[in-house]
């Protein structure tokens, strides 16, 4: 497929927001591997930095390392433990567990299509797959190795790896090469062969009437496409941006947390952010940990919706169990908080509309996971009447303060700029704001 050069430029920008990384020139190297209908060769080339094209040798070594429990302090946890290929590269748990069954404070996202992410992690703290791979090995709750030197020493002492690194990279094991091999394996984990892809490339019968109606609602009444647009240039169903949609907003006082957070965070220190994100209450500050911008408090990366049928539980904290719960969350406009994204509004969706949207979301699963997708749909449907997040009154606008125009009509007291994360700013009463002439 050929894209107009304007689109390619936009794509290059969208896909390269990682700090300090220049937009890669279109790769001169090896041609892309055979790609599924949902992934264009242009996207592939833009997403794989020149020199990082996965060679079969690197991919094979990377896969071995991805499955290697000896990369953890007590030889019990591999990348695969939390990103199980058979489970769509997730662990099926609300919160992941690392060595010694320690829980982290976040849900494991899928590695499928992570190659196309503009940034890695829920808060985008890593710019590349290589940077990303170096962190879980060293996180005390995940794989628990004390430092890169210890990892390298351990891997060098395993004769099989010593030989294979020599063969693949032409030198002794080092931490960068280890991350590069894992990243090469991950770059081959693309997915774009769902029933939706058949439908969008011309097979009108690939979706049922209910799924088609779900797709229409997705782009219309339900407004999902304002953050999760899906099309040829955005095949992940993600705008790759960060939003506060009010997940877990009822669990904390964001202002107090952000004030404390400001004292602790050293921006730019990836390792520190990793530990705060996975081991502390500051996890809930989301993107704010990376940018220290007030408007990023509680905001997280818009995740891909491909394969979402098999990657539950949902959201950065795994707090929503089914896609019906997700729909209930959106239908009521999320959970109000001072940093709620302006795009979050009550939707007034009816039960049949919610069912159609859920069927549509299940049609985004790659055909290689058909069986699991059907099982998950059945499991979730069995909970269809158990709906802790449902609030029909609010969703239909009969209750609550969420109007149709803006989530916070009383902005003069709730304007984030006046909340004083960086010191006490007493809100100015509206009457004194503009002096009479
Ligand atoms: C203990 C469970 C656990 C282990 C082990 C683990 N991960 Fe993860 N992974 C997670 C969680 C949880 C997140 C999300 C953390 C966050 O965003 O703060 C994550 C995020 C990621 C992401 C980012 C995906 C995205 O959409 O942003 C990638 C890629 C990834 N892991 C790959 C790996 C690799 C490679 C390894 C091994 C070197 C690994 N993981 C080991 C749990 C784990
Ligand atoms: C304002 C932007 C925005 C809108 C509008 C939006 N989303 Fe999201 N979506 C997000 C963000 C951001 C997250 C992650 C939030 C978090 O974890 O705190 C998310 C998470 C999700 C998830 C969880 C995925 C996972 O792997 O955990 C699903 C499913 C989802 N959205 C579907 C939808 C649907 C369906 C709609 C329309 C009804 C919609 N979204 C509207 C931004 C948005």
TrEMBL record:
Report the locations given in the UniProt record. Cell envelope
Q: Name one GO molecular function term.
A: heme binding
Gene3D superfamilies referenced in this protein's UniProt entry, alphabetically: Cytochrome c-like domain
Enumerate the InterPro entries for this protein: Cyt_c-like_dom, Cyt_c-like_dom_sf, Cytochrome_c_Peroxidase/MauG, Di-haem_cyt_c_peroxidsae
The record's section on SUPFAM superfamilies has:
Cytochrome c (SSF46626)
Q: Which residues form the signal peptide?
A: 1-22
What keywords is this UniProt entry annotated with?
Heme, Iron, Metal-binding, Oxidoreductase, Peroxidase, Signal
Give a Pfam family name: CCP_MauG
Where do the Cytochrome c domain residues begin and end?
57-189, 209-365
Say where the protein is mainly found. Answer: other
GO CC aspect terms: cell envelope
Task: List every stretch annotated Disordered.
Answer: 376-437
Listed name of the protein: Cytochrome-c peroxidase
């Amino acid at each position: 497929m050929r894209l107009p050069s304007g689109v390619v430029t936009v794509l290059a920008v969208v896909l390269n927001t990682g700090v300090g990384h220049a937009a890669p020139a279109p790769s001169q190297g090896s041609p892309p591997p055979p790609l599924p209908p949902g992934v264009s060769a242009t996207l592939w080339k833009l997403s794989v930095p020149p020199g990082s094209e996965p060679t079969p040798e690197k991919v094979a070594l990377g896969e071995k390392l991805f499955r290697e429990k000896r990369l953890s302090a007590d030889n019990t946890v591999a990348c695969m433990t939390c990103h199980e290929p058979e489970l769509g590269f997730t662990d099926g748990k609300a919160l992941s567990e690392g060595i010694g069954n320690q829980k982290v404070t976040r849900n494991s996202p899928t590695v499928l299509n992570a190659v196309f992410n503009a940034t890695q992690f829920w808060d985008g703290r890593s710019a590349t797959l290589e940077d990303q791979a170096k962190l879980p090995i060293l996180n005390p709750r995940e794989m628990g190795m004390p430092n890169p030197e210890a990892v390298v020493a351990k891997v060098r002492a395993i004769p099989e790896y010593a030989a294979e690194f020599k063969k693949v990279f032409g030198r002794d094991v080092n931490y960068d090469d280890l991350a590069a091999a894992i990243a090469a394996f991950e770059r081959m984990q693309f997915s774009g062969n769902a029933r939706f892809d058949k439908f969008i490339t011309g097979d009108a019968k690939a979706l049922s009437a209910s799924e088609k109606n779900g797709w229409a609602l997705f782009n219309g009444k339900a407004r999902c496409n304002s953050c999760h647009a899906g099309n040829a240039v955005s095949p992940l169903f993600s705008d790759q941006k960060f939003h506060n949609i009010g997940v877990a907003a009822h669990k904390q006082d964001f202002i107090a947390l952000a004030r404390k957070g400001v004292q602790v965070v050293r921006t730019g220190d990836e390792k520190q952010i990793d530990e705060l994100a996975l081991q502390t209450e500051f996890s809930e500050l989301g993107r704010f940990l990376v940018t220290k911008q007030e408007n990023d408090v509680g905001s997280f990366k818009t995740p891909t919706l491909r394969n979402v049928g098999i990657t539950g539980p949902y959201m950065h904290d795994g707090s929503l169990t089914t896609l019906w719960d997700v729909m209930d969350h959106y239908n009521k406009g999320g959970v109000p908080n001072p940093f709620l994204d302006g795009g979050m509004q009550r939707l007034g969706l009816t039960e049949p509309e919610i069912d159609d949207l859920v069927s549509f979301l299940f049609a985004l699963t790659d055909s290689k996971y058909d069986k699991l997708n059907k099982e998950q749909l059945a499991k979730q449907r069995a909970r269809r009447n158990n709906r802790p997040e449902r609030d029909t009154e609010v969703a239909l606008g009969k209750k609550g303060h969420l109007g149709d125009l803006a989530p916070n009509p009383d902005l003069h007291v709730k304007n984030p700029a006046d909340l004083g994360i960086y010191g006490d700013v007493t809100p100015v009463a509206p009457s004194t704001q503009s002096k009479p002439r």
